Amino acid sequence: MSAIVPENATRLTLVGAEPIPQRKPGWLKRDVPLAGPNYRDIKHTMRGLDLHTVCEEAQCPNIHECWEDREATFLIGGDVCTRRCGFCDIATGKPGDYDTGEPVRVAEAVAAMELSFAVVTGVARDDLADKAAWLYAETCRQIKQRLPHCGVELLIDDFRGDADLLGLVLDAEPEVLAHNLETVPRLFSHVRPAFDYQGSLALLERVRADGRCASKSNLMLGMGESEDEVAAAMADLADVGCQILTIGQYLQPTSQHWALQRFVEPAEFDRYAQLGRELGFDHVESGPLVRSSYRAGRQAESAGVWRRAEPARA
Description:
This protein is of the alpha/beta class.
């Protein structure tokens, strides 16, 4: 299969039978830390309940840090997406049945793991009349019912721009409502062909105007964007009131995905963190190993939208 690469600002070119060889620089390599007590406890609980999280499925490099903070990320809505993004390794096709019992099971897992903060994301479900808005909202409600102290971040798609469906999710009152921009305007239609750049900004603006939770987004670097383009996208996000921003390194999943163009040096990530502060974001997490849900609870704390509380234990 061919790798997709941006040849210039307007079109794509297919090249090579294999991905362009890339050796990860030192700053993208990290030693696996010793497992702490919270990590071991969550791992044991998950195996006992036959549970799985995005943290494990995506082989996230930050899993030890997040689990030690009792934070984890869940994927809802199945494992088949109705959209195809150039960077995403989730299968695209016709999803299976709509599982209305999933919110309860996720909430039971969150309670069993005694999480402090839970991130819930999902595949796009354009096959459903409500685009899975109820599924997000009900999962949040069920978590809050079982573990009131647990903070919740919902990472959603755009619901095809339906403001009423977004309102259903906001009514569940998560601490953070996230929708990822992912890349700059010049690359957006190639990397996220089923989404709309201005539509994504409009969604985040509605979240900010609603005022019941913090708005959050993410940018992935190394896709062929320039530093000026990243700064412009950050300014666009700041203009619509986005409060929390994460910025990390894109890593190409397979040769069929958008080809990695470069490894971004840590100093460049530092410049974006500084720019984010100047633009007025409440919190910016910027670094090579940063992922959208990386220490999401700490991000929410830093932004002043959630306060960590130790769960009561017998």
